[in-house]
Amino acid sequence: MKRLLALLAFFLLTGASEPVLVTDISQHRIELRQGFTGAQLLLFGAITSPEGANAVRDYDVVVVLEGPARQMVLREKRKVAGMWVNAEYTTLRSVPSFYAVVANRPIRQITDPRTAAIYQLGLDSLQLSPSDSIDPARETHFAKGLVDLMQRQGLFHQDDSGVTINGGVLYSARIDLPSSVQPGVYTAETFAVRKGRVVASATARVEVGKQGFEKAVADFSQRAALAYGLMAVAVSVVMGWIAGRLFALF
Amino acid sequence: MDVYLPIANLSVNGLIIVGLGLLTGMLSGIFGVGGGFLTTPLLIFYGIPPTVAAASAASQVTGASVSGMLAHHQRGGVDYRMGVVLVLGGVLGTGLGALLFSLLQALGQIDTVINLLYVSMLGGIGAMMARESIQTLRAGSSGARPARKRRHHPLVARLPGRWRFYRSGLYISPLAPLLLGMFTGILTMLMGIGGGFVLVPAMLYILGMSAQVVVGTSLFQILFVTMATTMMHALTTRAVDIVLAGLLLIGSVSGAQLGARFATTASPVKLRLALAAIVLAVAARMALGLTWRPDEIFTVSLL
Protein backbone atom coordinates (compact mmCIF):
# COMPACT_ATOMS: atom_id res chain seq x y z
CA MET A 1 0.00 0.00 0.00
CA LYS A 2 2.89 2.33 0.86
CA ARG A 3 4.48 1.65 -2.50
CA LEU A 4 1.19 2.39 -4.18
CA LEU A 5 0.76 5.70 -2.39
CA ALA A 6 4.30 6.71 -3.23
CA LEU A 7 3.65 5.96 -6.91
CA LEU A 8 0.37 7.80 -6.73
CA ALA A 9 2.04 10.85 -5.21
CA PHE A 10 4.72 10.69 -7.89
CA PHE A 11 2.21 10.74 -10.71
CA LEU A 12 0.11 13.43 -9.11
CA LEU A 13 3.11 15.68 -8.61
CA THR A 14 4.77 15.18 -11.96
CA GLY A 15 1.43 15.47 -13.80
CA ALA A 16 1.82 12.90 -16.59
CA SER A 17 0.03 13.85 -19.80
CA GLU A 18 -1.90 10.54 -20.18
CA PRO A 19 -4.19 8.97 -17.57
CA VAL A 20 -2.24 6.30 -15.76
CA LEU A 21 -3.47 3.18 -13.97
CA VAL A 22 -1.53 1.95 -10.97
CA THR A 23 -2.65 -1.53 -9.95
CA ASP A 24 -1.84 -4.30 -7.53
CA ILE A 25 -3.33 -7.64 -6.39
CA SER A 26 -3.63 -8.98 -2.86
CA GLN A 27 -1.94 -12.24 -3.89
CA HIS A 28 0.37 -12.91 -6.83
CA ARG A 29 0.56 -16.60 -6.14
CA ILE A 30 -2.23 -19.01 -5.15
CA GLU A 31 -1.13 -22.33 -3.72
CA LEU A 32 -3.29 -25.36 -4.35
CA ARG A 33 -2.64 -27.60 -1.39
CA GLN A 34 -4.39 -29.27 1.55
CA GLY A 35 -6.91 -26.90 3.07
CA PHE A 36 -7.43 -24.93 -0.16
CA THR A 37 -11.17 -24.35 -0.53
CA GLY A 38 -11.04 -21.43 -2.90
CA ALA A 39 -9.58 -17.95 -2.65
CA GLN A 40 -10.65 -14.35 -2.82
CA LEU A 41 -8.49 -11.95 -4.75
CA LEU A 42 -8.55 -8.24 -4.05
CA LEU A 43 -7.57 -6.21 -7.08
CA PHE A 44 -7.01 -2.56 -6.34
CA GLY A 45 -5.27 0.53 -7.61
CA ALA A 46 -5.64 4.14 -8.63
CA ILE A 47 -6.31 6.18 -11.76
CA THR A 48 -4.41 9.39 -12.12
CA SER A 49 -5.35 11.97 -14.68
CA PRO A 50 -3.34 14.89 -15.99
CA GLU A 51 -6.34 17.16 -15.49
CA GLY A 52 -6.36 16.61 -11.76
CA ALA A 53 -8.41 14.61 -9.31
CA ASN A 54 -11.74 16.21 -10.24
CA ALA A 55 -11.56 15.09 -13.84
CA VAL A 56 -11.31 11.38 -13.00
CA ARG A 57 -14.88 11.22 -11.74
CA ASP A 58 -16.18 10.18 -15.11
CA TYR A 59 -13.91 7.14 -15.43
CA ASP A 60 -15.30 3.61 -15.33
CA VAL A 61 -13.24 0.65 -14.24
CA VAL A 62 -13.52 -2.90 -15.57
CA VAL A 63 -11.39 -5.70 -14.11
CA VAL A 64 -11.00 -9.04 -15.92
CA LEU A 65 -9.35 -12.12 -14.47
CA GLU A 66 -8.76 -14.89 -16.98
CA GLY A 67 -7.35 -18.40 -16.57
CA PRO A 68 -5.28 -20.31 -19.16
CA ALA A 69 -7.25 -21.02 -22.36
CA ARG A 70 -7.88 -24.57 -23.52
CA GLN A 71 -9.29 -26.30 -26.57
CA MET A 72 -12.64 -27.94 -25.93
CA VAL A 73 -15.44 -29.83 -27.64
CA LEU A 74 -18.88 -28.54 -26.70
CA ARG A 75 -21.74 -30.98 -27.28
CA GLU A 76 -25.44 -30.30 -27.19
CA LYS A 77 -28.07 -32.89 -26.36
CA ARG A 78 -31.24 -33.22 -28.43
CA LYS A 79 -34.25 -35.45 -28.00
CA VAL A 80 -33.98 -38.30 -30.50
CA ALA A 81 -36.56 -41.12 -30.37
CA GLY A 82 -37.54 -40.21 -26.80
CA MET A 83 -33.96 -40.08 -25.49
CA TRP A 84 -31.66 -37.15 -24.84
CA VAL A 85 -28.51 -37.87 -26.83
CA ASN A 86 -25.55 -35.80 -27.98
CA ALA A 87 -26.47 -34.42 -31.37
CA GLU A 88 -24.73 -31.17 -32.31
CA TYR A 89 -21.16 -30.30 -31.40
CA THR A 90 -18.59 -27.62 -32.02
CA THR A 91 -14.86 -27.31 -31.37
CA LEU A 92 -13.80 -24.19 -29.51
CA ARG A 93 -10.13 -23.36 -29.78
CA SER A 94 -9.79 -20.95 -26.88
CA VAL A 95 -12.01 -21.42 -23.86
CA PRO A 96 -10.64 -19.73 -20.73
CA SER A 97 -10.61 -22.20 -17.85
CA PHE A 98 -11.67 -19.30 -15.63
CA TYR A 99 -13.17 -15.93 -16.52
CA ALA A 100 -14.42 -13.26 -14.16
CA VAL A 101 -15.34 -9.71 -15.12
CA VAL A 102 -16.15 -7.03 -12.57
CA ALA A 103 -17.18 -3.44 -13.28
CA ASN A 104 -18.53 -0.45 -11.39
CA ARG A 105 -21.73 -0.33 -13.47
CA PRO A 106 -23.28 -2.51 -16.22
CA ILE A 107 -20.78 -3.00 -19.04
CA ARG A 108 -23.43 -2.16 -21.67
CA GLN A 109 -23.67 1.34 -20.17
CA ILE A 110 -19.91 1.71 -19.96
CA THR A 111 -19.04 0.95 -23.54
CA ASP A 112 -20.44 -0.16 -26.91
CA PRO A 113 -20.53 -3.85 -27.96
CA ARG A 114 -17.68 -3.39 -30.45
CA THR A 115 -15.23 -2.13 -27.85
CA ALA A 116 -16.45 -4.80 -25.44
CA ALA A 117 -15.72 -7.46 -28.07
CA ILE A 118 -12.22 -6.10 -28.77
CA TYR A 119 -11.20 -6.18 -25.11
CA GLN A 120 -13.41 -9.21 -24.28
CA LEU A 121 -15.34 -7.32 -21.63
CA GLY A 122 -18.34 -9.32 -20.42
CA LEU A 123 -19.56 -12.88 -20.73
CA ASP A 124 -21.35 -12.13 -23.99
CA SER A 125 -18.18 -10.77 -25.59
CA LEU A 126 -15.89 -13.78 -25.18
CA GLN A 127 -13.89 -14.83 -28.23
CA LEU A 128 -14.10 -18.61 -28.18
CA SER A 129 -12.73 -19.14 -31.72
CA PRO A 130 -14.93 -21.99 -32.97
CA SER A 131 -12.98 -23.86 -35.63
CA ASP A 132 -15.92 -25.12 -37.69
CA SER A 133 -18.68 -22.55 -37.55
CA ILE A 134 -19.67 -20.12 -40.28
CA ASP A 135 -23.17 -19.45 -39.00
CA PRO A 136 -23.26 -16.61 -36.43
CA ALA A 137 -26.61 -17.72 -34.94
CA ARG A 138 -25.23 -21.19 -34.26
CA GLU A 139 -22.07 -19.62 -32.82
CA THR A 140 -24.01 -17.47 -30.32
CA HIS A 141 -26.22 -20.42 -29.44
CA PHE A 142 -23.20 -22.52 -28.47
CA ALA A 143 -21.47 -19.59 -26.74
CA LYS A 144 -24.57 -19.05 -24.58
CA GLY A 145 -24.65 -22.74 -23.70
CA LEU A 146 -20.99 -22.72 -22.67
CA VAL A 147 -21.33 -19.57 -20.56
CA ASP A 148 -24.36 -21.02 -18.78
CA LEU A 149 -22.56 -24.31 -18.09
CA MET A 150 -19.41 -22.60 -16.79
CA GLN A 151 -21.42 -20.16 -14.65
CA ARG A 152 -23.11 -23.10 -12.92
CA GLN A 153 -19.67 -24.49 -12.08
CA GLY A 154 -18.58 -21.12 -10.69
CA LEU A 155 -15.83 -20.80 -13.29
CA PHE A 156 -17.40 -17.93 -15.26
CA HIS A 157 -18.60 -14.89 -13.41
CA GLN A 158 -19.83 -11.40 -14.18
CA ASP A 159 -20.51 -8.74 -11.58
CA ASP A 160 -21.76 -5.35 -12.80
CA SER A 161 -21.37 -3.61 -9.46
CA GLY A 162 -18.33 -5.29 -7.93
CA VAL A 163 -15.90 -2.42 -8.46
CA THR A 164 -16.02 0.40 -5.94
CA ILE A 165 -14.38 3.70 -6.78
CA ASN A 166 -13.36 5.92 -3.90
CA GLY A 167 -13.01 9.66 -4.40
CA GLY A 168 -12.75 9.13 -8.13
CA VAL A 169 -9.18 7.88 -7.74
CA LEU A 170 -8.90 4.64 -5.82
CA TYR A 171 -10.74 1.56 -6.98
CA SER A 172 -11.00 -1.97 -5.63
CA ALA A 173 -12.63 -5.20 -6.81
CA ARG A 174 -13.02 -8.64 -5.28
CA ILE A 175 -13.02 -11.87 -7.28
CA ASP A 176 -13.78 -15.29 -5.82
CA LEU A 177 -11.96 -18.33 -7.14
CA PRO A 178 -13.64 -21.70 -6.47
CA SER A 179 -11.55 -24.69 -5.33
CA SER A 180 -11.91 -26.26 -8.78
CA VAL A 181 -9.66 -23.67 -10.52
CA GLN A 182 -7.14 -25.14 -12.92
CA PRO A 183 -3.46 -24.51 -12.26
CA GLY A 184 -1.66 -22.13 -14.62
CA VAL A 185 -0.83 -18.48 -15.16
CA TYR A 186 -3.84 -16.19 -14.80
CA THR A 187 -3.90 -12.67 -16.13
CA ALA A 188 -5.61 -9.81 -14.39
CA GLU A 189 -6.39 -6.88 -16.66
CA THR A 190 -7.70 -3.56 -15.47
CA PHE A 191 -9.26 -1.12 -17.91
CA ALA A 192 -10.05 2.52 -17.29
CA VAL A 193 -12.86 3.54 -19.64
CA ARG A 194 -13.90 7.09 -20.34
CA LYS A 195 -16.84 8.01 -22.59
CA GLY A 196 -16.90 4.44 -23.94
CA ARG A 197 -13.21 4.40 -24.87
CA VAL A 198 -10.50 2.45 -23.11
CA VAL A 199 -8.01 5.13 -22.11
CA ALA A 200 -5.65 3.14 -19.92
CA SER A 201 -5.03 -0.49 -19.05
CA ALA A 202 -2.71 -2.50 -16.87
CA THR A 203 -1.95 -6.23 -16.78
CA ALA A 204 -0.74 -8.36 -13.90
CA ARG A 205 -0.09 -12.07 -13.53
CA VAL A 206 -1.37 -14.42 -10.86
CA GLU A 207 0.22 -17.83 -10.66
CA VAL A 208 -2.02 -20.67 -9.56
CA GLY A 209 0.03 -23.76 -8.80
CA LYS A 210 0.21 -26.89 -6.70
CA GLN A 211 2.63 -26.99 -3.80
CA GLY A 212 4.34 -29.60 -1.65
CA PHE A 213 2.62 -33.01 -1.49
CA GLU A 214 -0.01 -32.06 -4.09
CA LYS A 215 2.65 -31.00 -6.57
CA ALA A 216 4.65 -34.17 -5.89
CA VAL A 217 1.62 -36.41 -6.53
CA ALA A 218 0.64 -34.59 -9.73
CA ASP A 219 4.23 -34.71 -11.06
CA PHE A 220 4.60 -38.38 -10.12
CA SER A 221 1.42 -39.37 -11.98
CA GLN A 222 2.64 -37.58 -15.10
CA ARG A 223 6.32 -38.51 -15.12
CA ALA A 224 6.25 -42.10 -13.87
CA ALA A 225 2.81 -43.36 -14.87
CA LEU A 226 3.73 -47.05 -14.53
CA ALA A 227 5.19 -46.66 -11.04
CA TYR A 228 2.26 -44.46 -10.02
CA GLY A 229 -0.25 -47.04 -11.22
CA LEU A 230 1.58 -49.84 -9.41
CA MET A 231 1.64 -47.71 -6.28
CA ALA A 232 -2.13 -47.07 -6.51
CA VAL A 233 -2.77 -50.80 -6.93
CA ALA A 234 -0.39 -51.64 -4.06
CA VAL A 235 -2.01 -49.06 -1.76
CA SER A 236 -5.49 -50.47 -2.41
CA VAL A 237 -4.42 -54.11 -1.99
CA VAL A 238 -2.48 -53.37 1.21
CA MET A 239 -5.31 -51.32 2.70
CA GLY A 240 -7.81 -54.06 1.91
CA TRP A 241 -5.50 -56.68 3.41
CA ILE A 242 -4.87 -54.66 6.59
CA ALA A 243 -8.61 -54.17 7.08
CA GLY A 244 -9.15 -57.89 6.60
CA ARG A 245 -6.49 -58.70 9.23
CA LEU A 246 -7.72 -56.09 11.69
CA PHE A 247 -11.30 -57.27 11.53
CA ALA A 248 -10.25 -60.92 11.84
CA LEU A 249 -8.95 -60.08 15.33
CA PHE A 250 -12.42 -59.28 16.61
CA MET B 1 -12.96 -31.75 6.82
CA ASP B 2 -11.79 -30.27 3.51
CA VAL B 3 -9.36 -32.28 1.45
CA TYR B 4 -7.74 -31.01 -1.74
CA LEU B 5 -7.54 -33.66 -4.48
CA PRO B 6 -4.30 -33.20 -6.45
CA ILE B 7 -5.38 -34.90 -9.70
CA ALA B 8 -9.06 -33.92 -9.72
CA ASN B 9 -7.98 -30.30 -8.98
CA LEU B 10 -10.65 -29.46 -6.46
CA SER B 11 -11.38 -29.73 -2.77
CA VAL B 12 -14.03 -32.03 -1.31
CA ASN B 13 -15.44 -32.88 2.08
CA GLY B 14 -13.36 -35.88 3.13
CA LEU B 15 -16.02 -37.30 5.43
CA ILE B 16 -18.58 -37.51 2.62
CA ILE B 17 -16.13 -39.45 0.46
CA VAL B 18 -15.29 -41.84 3.32
CA GLY B 19 -19.03 -42.33 3.93
CA LEU B 20 -19.58 -43.08 0.25
CA GLY B 21 -16.77 -45.64 0.43
CA LEU B 22 -18.34 -47.23 3.50
CA LEU B 23 -21.69 -47.57 1.74
CA THR B 24 -20.28 -49.18 -1.41
CA GLY B 25 -17.92 -51.33 0.68
CA MET B 26 -20.93 -52.75 2.54
CA LEU B 27 -22.59 -53.57 -0.79
CA SER B 28 -19.40 -55.26 -1.88
CA GLY B 29 -19.12 -57.40 1.26
CA ILE B 30 -22.79 -58.36 1.33
CA PHE B 31 -23.49 -59.02 -2.33
CA GLY B 32 -20.08 -59.55 -3.92
CA VAL B 33 -20.61 -56.67 -6.32
CA GLY B 34 -17.84 -54.10 -6.54
CA GLY B 35 -20.13 -51.15 -5.98
CA GLY B 36 -18.59 -49.32 -8.94
CA PHE B 37 -22.04 -48.96 -10.48
CA LEU B 38 -22.91 -46.76 -7.51
CA THR B 39 -19.58 -45.02 -6.71
CA THR B 40 -18.83 -43.62 -10.16
CA PRO B 41 -22.21 -41.91 -10.74
CA LEU B 42 -22.26 -40.54 -7.17
CA LEU B 43 -18.73 -39.11 -7.48
CA ILE B 44 -19.67 -37.44 -10.78
CA PHE B 45 -22.80 -36.07 -9.16
CA TYR B 46 -20.60 -34.63 -6.37
CA GLY B 47 -18.65 -32.67 -9.00
CA ILE B 48 -15.60 -34.83 -9.63
CA PRO B 49 -14.54 -35.00 -13.31
CA PRO B 50 -15.93 -38.23 -14.89
CA THR B 51 -12.57 -39.71 -15.93
CA VAL B 52 -11.07 -39.14 -12.47
CA ALA B 53 -14.18 -40.63 -10.87
CA ALA B 54 -14.07 -43.80 -12.99
CA ALA B 55 -10.29 -44.25 -12.62
CA SER B 56 -10.23 -43.75 -8.84
CA ALA B 57 -13.36 -45.82 -8.22
CA ALA B 58 -11.58 -48.75 -9.86
CA SER B 59 -8.81 -48.75 -7.23
CA GLN B 60 -11.39 -48.40 -4.47
CA VAL B 61 -13.12 -51.52 -5.76
CA THR B 62 -9.74 -53.34 -5.70
CA GLY B 63 -9.33 -52.60 -1.99
CA ALA B 64 -12.88 -53.58 -1.13
CA SER B 65 -12.51 -56.84 -3.09
CA VAL B 66 -9.28 -57.80 -1.27
CA SER B 67 -10.91 -57.07 2.05
CA GLY B 68 -14.13 -58.92 1.19
CA MET B 69 -12.33 -61.82 -0.50
CA LEU B 70 -10.14 -62.43 2.57
CA ALA B 71 -13.26 -62.66 4.69
CA HIS B 72 -14.80 -65.17 2.28
CA HIS B 73 -11.53 -67.08 1.88
CA GLN B 74 -11.43 -67.79 5.61
CA ARG B 75 -14.67 -69.70 5.35
CA GLY B 76 -13.71 -71.48 2.11
CA GLY B 77 -15.95 -69.36 -0.05
CA VAL B 78 -13.64 -68.89 -3.06
CA ASP B 79 -13.41 -71.33 -6.00
CA TYR B 80 -9.92 -70.43 -7.25
CA ARG B 81 -10.09 -72.71 -10.28
CA MET B 82 -13.27 -71.04 -11.49
CA GLY B 83 -11.80 -67.65 -10.54
CA VAL B 84 -8.70 -68.08 -12.72
CA VAL B 85 -10.81 -69.03 -15.76
CA LEU B 86 -13.03 -65.98 -15.20
CA VAL B 87 -10.01 -63.67 -14.85
CA LEU B 88 -8.52 -64.97 -18.12
CA GLY B 89 -11.81 -64.26 -19.87
CA GLY B 90 -11.97 -60.86 -18.18
CA VAL B 91 -8.54 -59.82 -19.47
CA LEU B 92 -9.50 -60.84 -23.05
CA GLY B 93 -12.76 -58.93 -22.62
CA THR B 94 -11.08 -55.69 -21.48
CA GLY B 95 -9.00 -55.74 -24.67
CA LEU B 96 -12.11 -56.12 -26.83
CA GLY B 97 -13.91 -53.51 -24.73
CA ALA B 98 -11.09 -50.98 -25.28
CA LEU B 99 -11.48 -51.43 -29.06
CA LEU B 100 -15.25 -50.93 -28.86
CA PHE B 101 -14.77 -47.91 -26.62
CA SER B 102 -12.54 -46.04 -29.08
CA LEU B 103 -14.91 -46.90 -31.94
CA LEU B 104 -17.93 -45.47 -30.09
CA GLN B 105 -15.96 -42.46 -28.93
CA ALA B 106 -15.09 -41.62 -32.52
CA LEU B 107 -18.82 -41.67 -33.30
CA GLY B 108 -19.48 -39.29 -30.34
CA GLN B 109 -22.15 -41.59 -28.89
CA ILE B 110 -20.25 -43.29 -26.07
CA ASP B 111 -22.38 -41.59 -23.37
CA THR B 112 -25.66 -42.79 -24.84
CA VAL B 113 -24.38 -46.33 -25.30
CA ILE B 114 -23.12 -46.40 -21.71
CA ASN B 115 -26.47 -45.15 -20.40
CA LEU B 116 -28.45 -47.62 -22.50
CA LEU B 117 -26.18 -50.44 -21.31
CA TYR B 118 -26.74 -49.42 -17.70
CA VAL B 119 -30.52 -49.28 -18.10
CA SER B 120 -30.88 -52.56 -19.99
CA MET B 121 -28.32 -54.57 -17.99
CA LEU B 122 -29.38 -53.31 -14.58
CA GLY B 123 -33.08 -53.42 -15.44
CA GLY B 124 -32.94 -56.93 -16.88
CA ILE B 125 -30.82 -58.42 -14.13
CA GLY B 126 -32.68 -56.62 -11.36
CA ALA B 127 -36.03 -57.87 -12.63
CA MET B 128 -34.74 -61.43 -13.00
CA MET B 129 -33.32 -61.48 -9.48
CA ALA B 130 -36.41 -59.89 -7.94
CA ARG B 131 -38.71 -62.43 -9.62
CA GLU B 132 -36.61 -65.38 -8.54
CA SER B 133 -36.20 -64.29 -4.93
CA ILE B 134 -39.87 -63.39 -4.50
CA GLN B 135 -40.85 -66.83 -5.85
CA THR B 136 -38.47 -68.54 -3.43
CA LEU B 137 -39.71 -66.45 -0.51
CA ARG B 138 -43.36 -67.28 -1.33
CA ALA B 139 -42.61 -70.98 -1.68
CA GLY B 140 -40.78 -70.90 1.66
CA SER B 141 -43.52 -69.11 3.58
CA SER B 142 -46.37 -71.27 2.25
CA GLY B 143 -44.49 -74.33 3.42
CA ALA B 144 -44.37 -75.85 -0.08
CA ARG B 145 -41.08 -77.25 -1.36
CA PRO B 146 -39.50 -74.88 -3.87
CA ALA B 147 -39.80 -76.05 -7.45
CA ARG B 148 -36.82 -78.13 -8.55
CA LYS B 149 -34.42 -75.80 -10.29
CA ARG B 150 -32.31 -76.77 -13.25
CA ARG B 151 -28.61 -76.88 -12.37
CA HIS B 152 -27.42 -74.69 -15.18
CA HIS B 153 -28.55 -73.19 -18.44
CA PRO B 154 -29.03 -75.80 -21.23
CA LEU B 155 -26.62 -73.90 -23.51
CA VAL B 156 -23.83 -74.36 -20.92
CA ALA B 157 -24.33 -78.14 -21.01
CA ARG B 158 -23.78 -78.20 -24.78
CA LEU B 159 -20.29 -76.68 -24.70
CA PRO B 160 -17.51 -79.21 -25.38
CA GLY B 161 -14.88 -80.42 -22.87
CA ARG B 162 -15.78 -80.62 -19.20
CA TRP B 163 -13.79 -79.71 -16.08
CA ARG B 164 -14.59 -80.40 -12.50
CA PHE B 165 -15.04 -77.31 -10.31
CA TYR B 166 -15.26 -78.98 -6.90
CA ARG B 167 -16.02 -76.00 -4.73
CA SER B 168 -18.71 -74.75 -7.10
CA GLY B 169 -20.12 -78.26 -7.29
CA LEU B 170 -20.01 -78.20 -11.10
CA TYR B 171 -18.85 -80.43 -13.95
CA ILE B 172 -19.02 -78.09 -16.94
CA SER B 173 -17.01 -76.83 -19.89
CA PRO B 174 -14.44 -74.13 -18.91
CA LEU B 175 -15.59 -72.23 -22.01
CA ALA B 176 -18.75 -71.14 -20.18
CA PRO B 177 -16.98 -69.18 -17.39
CA LEU B 178 -14.38 -67.96 -19.94
CA LEU B 179 -17.10 -66.42 -22.12
CA LEU B 180 -18.83 -65.00 -19.06
CA GLY B 181 -15.55 -63.44 -17.90
CA MET B 182 -15.02 -61.97 -21.36
CA PHE B 183 -18.48 -60.46 -21.39
CA THR B 184 -17.96 -58.80 -18.00
CA GLY B 185 -14.52 -57.62 -19.16
CA ILE B 186 -16.14 -55.80 -22.08
CA LEU B 187 -18.69 -54.23 -19.72
CA THR B 188 -15.89 -53.18 -17.35
CA MET B 189 -14.17 -51.17 -20.03
CA LEU B 190 -17.38 -49.67 -21.44
CA MET B 191 -19.19 -48.90 -18.20
CA GLY B 192 -16.23 -48.33 -15.87
CA ILE B 193 -17.45 -50.87 -13.33
CA GLY B 194 -16.18 -54.15 -11.89
CA GLY B 195 -19.00 -56.15 -13.41
CA GLY B 196 -19.99 -57.92 -10.21
CA PHE B 197 -23.67 -57.16 -10.57
CA VAL B 198 -23.62 -59.00 -13.90
CA LEU B 199 -21.30 -61.76 -12.74
CA VAL B 200 -23.10 -62.76 -9.54
CA PRO B 201 -26.53 -63.43 -11.11
CA ALA B 202 -24.91 -65.09 -14.13
CA MET B 203 -22.93 -67.43 -11.86
CA LEU B 204 -26.10 -68.31 -9.97
CA TYR B 205 -28.58 -68.64 -12.80
CA ILE B 206 -26.51 -69.45 -15.91
CA LEU B 207 -23.61 -71.49 -14.52
CA GLY B 208 -25.62 -72.78 -11.57
CA MET B 209 -22.74 -72.41 -9.10
CA SER B 210 -23.22 -73.30 -5.46
CA ALA B 211 -24.39 -70.15 -3.63
CA GLN B 212 -21.70 -70.43 -0.93
CA VAL B 213 -18.85 -69.71 -3.36
CA VAL B 214 -20.52 -67.23 -5.70
CA VAL B 215 -19.73 -64.04 -3.76
CA GLY B 216 -16.12 -64.97 -2.90
CA THR B 217 -15.31 -66.08 -6.45
CA SER B 218 -16.91 -63.00 -7.96
CA LEU B 219 -14.77 -60.81 -5.66
CA PHE B 220 -11.68 -62.74 -6.81
CA GLN B 221 -12.43 -61.95 -10.46
CA ILE B 222 -13.29 -58.31 -9.73
CA LEU B 223 -10.02 -57.89 -7.82
CA PHE B 224 -7.88 -58.74 -10.84
CA VAL B 225 -10.02 -56.97 -13.42
CA THR B 226 -10.04 -53.69 -11.42
CA MET B 227 -6.28 -53.93 -10.86
CA ALA B 228 -5.88 -54.10 -14.66
CA THR B 229 -8.30 -51.18 -15.07
CA THR B 230 -6.40 -49.01 -12.57
CA MET B 231 -3.13 -49.68 -14.40
CA MET B 232 -4.78 -48.94 -17.74
CA HIS B 233 -6.06 -45.59 -16.45
CA ALA B 234 -2.71 -44.69 -14.82
CA LEU B 235 -0.96 -45.30 -18.12
CA THR B 236 -3.46 -43.75 -20.54
CA THR B 237 -5.79 -41.17 -18.95
CA ARG B 238 -3.49 -40.43 -15.95
CA ALA B 239 -6.63 -39.73 -13.98
CA VAL B 240 -6.10 -41.96 -10.92
CA ASP B 241 -6.32 -39.63 -7.92
CA ILE B 242 -4.56 -41.44 -5.10
CA VAL B 243 -5.91 -39.09 -2.42
CA LEU B 244 -9.48 -39.66 -3.61
CA ALA B 245 -8.88 -43.41 -3.87
CA GLY B 246 -7.34 -43.44 -0.36
CA LEU B 247 -10.37 -41.73 1.16
CA LEU B 248 -12.76 -44.10 -0.61
CA LEU B 249 -10.62 -47.05 0.50
CA ILE B 250 -10.71 -46.11 4.19
CA GLY B 251 -14.49 -46.35 4.05
CA SER B 252 -14.85 -49.29 1.71
CA VAL B 253 -12.37 -51.73 3.29
CA SER B 254 -14.15 -51.36 6.64
CA GLY B 255 -17.54 -51.53 4.95
CA ALA B 256 -16.59 -54.71 3.10
CA GLN B 257 -15.70 -56.43 6.40
CA LEU B 258 -18.92 -55.36 8.08
CA GLY B 259 -20.85 -56.44 5.00
CA ALA B 260 -19.22 -59.86 4.77
CA ARG B 261 -20.00 -60.46 8.44
CA PHE B 262 -23.61 -59.42 7.94
CA ALA B 263 -23.91 -61.65 4.85
CA THR B 264 -23.16 -64.83 6.84
CA THR B 265 -26.03 -64.20 9.26
CA ALA B 266 -28.71 -62.86 6.89
CA SER B 267 -30.96 -64.99 4.70
CA PRO B 268 -29.47 -65.27 1.18
CA VAL B 269 -32.86 -64.95 -0.51
CA LYS B 270 -33.64 -61.70 1.27
CA LEU B 271 -30.15 -60.42 0.40
CA ARG B 272 -30.80 -61.16 -3.27
CA LEU B 273 -34.13 -59.34 -3.09
CA ALA B 274 -32.41 -56.33 -1.51
CA LEU B 275 -29.71 -56.28 -4.20
CA ALA B 276 -32.42 -56.56 -6.87
CA ALA B 277 -34.18 -53.52 -5.37
CA ILE B 278 -30.97 -51.43 -5.38
CA VAL B 279 -30.12 -52.46 -8.95
CA LEU B 280 -33.64 -51.66 -10.17
CA ALA B 281 -33.56 -48.27 -8.44
CA VAL B 282 -30.30 -47.32 -10.20
CA ALA B 283 -31.72 -48.54 -13.53
CA ALA B 284 -34.86 -46.46 -13.05
CA ARG B 285 -32.80 -43.38 -12.23
CA MET B 286 -30.69 -43.91 -15.36
CA ALA B 287 -33.78 -44.40 -17.53
CA LEU B 288 -35.24 -41.13 -16.22
CA GLY B 289 -31.95 -39.40 -17.00
CA LEU B 290 -32.23 -40.55 -20.61
CA THR B 291 -35.83 -39.53 -21.18
CA TRP B 292 -36.32 -36.41 -19.07
CA ARG B 293 -34.96 -33.14 -20.34
CA PRO B 294 -31.60 -32.85 -18.62
CA ASP B 295 -30.94 -29.83 -16.42
CA GLU B 296 -27.97 -28.92 -18.60
CA ILE B 297 -28.05 -29.93 -22.24
CA PHE B 298 -24.48 -28.84 -22.95
CA THR B 299 -21.35 -30.76 -21.99
CA VAL B 300 -17.70 -29.91 -22.53
CA SER B 301 -14.74 -32.18 -22.91
CA LEU B 302 -11.10 -31.20 -23.23
CA LEU B 303 -9.38 -31.85 -26.51
TrEMBL record, chain A:
<feature type="transmembrane region" description="Helical">
    <location>
        <begin position="225"/>
        <end position="248"/>
    </location>
</feature>
<dbReference type="InterPro" id="IPR019088">
    <property type="entry name" value="CHP02186-rel_TM"/>
</dbReference>
<keyword id="KW-1133">Transmembrane helix</keyword>
<protein>
    <submittedName>
        <fullName>Uncharacterized protein (TIGR02186 family)</fullName>
    </submittedName>
</protein>
<dbReference type="Pfam" id="PF09608">
    <property type="entry name" value="Alph_Pro_TM"/>
</dbReference>
<feature type="signal peptide">
    <location>
        <begin position="1"/>
        <end position="22"/>
    </location>
</feature>
<keyword id="KW-0472">Membrane</keyword>
<keyword id="KW-0812">Transmembrane</keyword>
<keyword id="KW-0732">Signal</keyword>
Automatic annotation (TrEMBL), chain B:
<feature type="transmembrane region" description="Helical">
    <location>
        <begin position="113"/>
        <end position="130"/>
    </location>
</feature>
<feature type="transmembrane region" description="Helical">
    <location>
        <begin position="271"/>
        <end position="288"/>
    </location>
</feature>
<feature type="transmembrane region" description="Helical">
    <location>
        <begin position="12"/>
        <end position="38"/>
    </location>
</feature>
<feature type="transmembrane region" description="Helical">
    <location>
        <begin position="170"/>
        <end position="198"/>
    </location>
</feature>
<dbReference type="Pfam" id="PF01925">
    <property type="entry name" value="TauE"/>
</dbReference>
<dbReference type="InterPro" id="IPR051598">
    <property type="entry name" value="TSUP/Inactive_protease-like"/>
</dbReference>
<feature type="transmembrane region" description="Helical">
    <location>
        <begin position="204"/>
        <end position="227"/>
    </location>
</feature>
<keyword id="KW-0812">Transmembrane</keyword>
<comment type="similarity">
    <text>Belongs to the 4-toluene sulfonate uptake permease (TSUP) (TC 2.A.102) family.</text>
</comment>
<dbReference type="GO" id="GO:0005886">
    <property type="term" value="C:plasma membrane"/>
</dbReference>
<feature type="transmembrane region" description="Helical">
    <location>
        <begin position="44"/>
        <end position="71"/>
    </location>
</feature>
<feature type="transmembrane region" description="Helical">
    <location>
        <begin position="83"/>
        <end position="107"/>
    </location>
</feature>
<dbReference type="InterPro" id="IPR002781">
    <property type="entry name" value="TM_pro_TauE-like"/>
</dbReference>
<feature type="transmembrane region" description="Helical">
    <location>
        <begin position="239"/>
        <end position="259"/>
    </location>
</feature>
<protein>
    <recommendedName>
        <fullName>Probable membrane transporter protein</fullName>
    </recommendedName>
</protein>
<keyword id="KW-1003">Cell membrane</keyword>
<keyword id="KW-0472">Membrane</keyword>
<keyword id="KW-1133">Transmembrane helix</keyword>
